[in-house]
């Protein structure tokens, strides 16, 4: 396949925090390596240190935007769409519904558009009425005008068929890599940095925004009375009233550690030595953080939202979303449990398989008139 591919809808790669960003960082180098594709990933200048670069064979191009949570994705997507038109990209792969608004423009200029639906972002509490309207419109246009649509869960596939009659979507899961454990000396170094003991802490990973439910976790942690440390890995892209209050509450609560955003060896070290993983989200697509925790065999406690239920964990892994007392009870029952083998679960989340499935979607889009 000789067609050039441009990617938009991500803050950038590599090592930019976020689920879409992690997805793109894993997927596109594999597509280049396995199929020798010509792929350019557009990035947002505030999040990356380059104007142009190459990452594992993937071309990178940073374009300007504004650091405003409501405007940065639509504005950057518009500029990236113009860049795709200017440079003559044959296929444009659009990620996330906030970027769906530019799909009619791309189609008008004859581009094949692949759209990946990661999450119903309009369910996030942080968005106002206008932002939610724009996100819903982005989803609607993405479903109506995209050449091909990829969804990352069977729940999302059924929902898009029900809402928009789009019954030809491709179900391609998010993926997770085989865990790469750092050397024991490095693990000990990272644990010492935060004064942590192996299997002596509970970990949660996520952006400090309302839909991630970390305030519910903090309340549950206090109600549970457990003695293990609570480690919150993450931060907010833009300081908000919620993120500021969350950090203040965490600092005022005994045995809570804030690490900020982590990646690579440091994140793997924290995952590998945790006792339990918690995901208290109100809204998700298919959470990569949960898949990563599973790859390290951690006992998991997750909210019972449809996206988390789509992973098909055992019933006792789920708590009632938003219910801090139910989560507290689950914490008490789960800590000090043995590690869990998720080998069968994770067979569907192999990045080599995902790259192959995505390549097949690209070929299918090219074959269509």
TrEMBL record:
CDD domains in UniProt: GT4_PimA-like
Domain called Glycosyl transferase family: residue spans: 198-348
Its EC number(s): 2.4.1.301
Superkingdom of the organism of origin: Bacteria
Signal peptide (residue range): none
Keyword tRNA-binding listed: no
EC class (word): transferase
UniProt keywords, alphabetically: Glycosyltransferase, Transferase
GO molecular function: glycosyltransferase activity
Residues annotated as domain Glycosyltransferase subfamily 4-like N-terminal: 17-176
TM ranges: none
PANTHER family per UniProt: GLYCOSYLTRANSFERASE WBBK-RELATED
Protein name, entry field: Alpha-D-kanosaminyltransferase
């Amino acid at each position: 396949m000789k067609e050039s591919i441009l990617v938009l809808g991500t803050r950038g790669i590599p090592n930019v925090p976020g689920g879409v960003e992690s997805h793109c960082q894993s997927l596109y180098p594999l597509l280049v390596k396995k199929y020798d594709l010509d792929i350019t990933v557009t990035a947002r200048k505030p999040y990356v240190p380059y104007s142009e670069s190459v990452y594992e064979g993937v071309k990178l191009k940073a374009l300007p935007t504004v650091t405003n949570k409501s405007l940065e994705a639509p504005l950057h997507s518009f500029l990236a769409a113009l860049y795709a038109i200017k440079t003559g990209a044959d296929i444009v792969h659009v990620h996330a519904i906030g970027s769906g608004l530019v799909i009619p423009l791309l189609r008008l200029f004859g581009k094949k558009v692949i759209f990946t639906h990661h999450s119903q972002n309009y369910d996030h509490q942080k968005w106002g009425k206008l932002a939610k309207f724009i996100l819903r419109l982005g989803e609607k246009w993405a479903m109506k005008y995209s050449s091909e649509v990829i969804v990352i869960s069977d729940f999302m596939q059924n929902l898009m068929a029900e809402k928009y009659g789009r019954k030809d979507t491709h179900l391609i899961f998010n993926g997770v890599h085989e865990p790469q454990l750092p050397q024991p000396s490095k693990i000990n170094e990272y644990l010492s940095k935060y004064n942590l003991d192996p299997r002596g802490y509970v970990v949660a990973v996520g952006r400090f925004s309302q839909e991630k439910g970390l305030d519910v976790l903090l309340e549950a942690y206090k109600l549970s009375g457990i003695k293990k440390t609570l480690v919150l890995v993450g931060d907010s892209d833009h300081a908000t009233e919620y993120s500021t209050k969350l950090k203040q509450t965490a600092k005022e609560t005994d045995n809570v550690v804030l690490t900020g955003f982590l990646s690579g060896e440091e994140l793997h070290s924290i995952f590998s030595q945790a006792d339990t993983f918690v995901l208290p989200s109100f809204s998700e697509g298919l959470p990569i953080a949960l898949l990563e925790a599973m790859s390290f065999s951690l006992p998991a406690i997750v909210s019972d939202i449809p996206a988390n239920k789509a992973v098909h964990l055992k019933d006792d892994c789920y708590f009632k979303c938003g219910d801090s007392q139910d989560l507290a009870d689950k914490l008490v029952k789960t800590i000090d449990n043995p590690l869990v083998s998720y080998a069968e679960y994770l067979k569907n989340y192999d990045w080599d398989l995902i790259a192959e499935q995505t390549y097949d979607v690209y070929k299918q889009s090219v074959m269509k008139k």
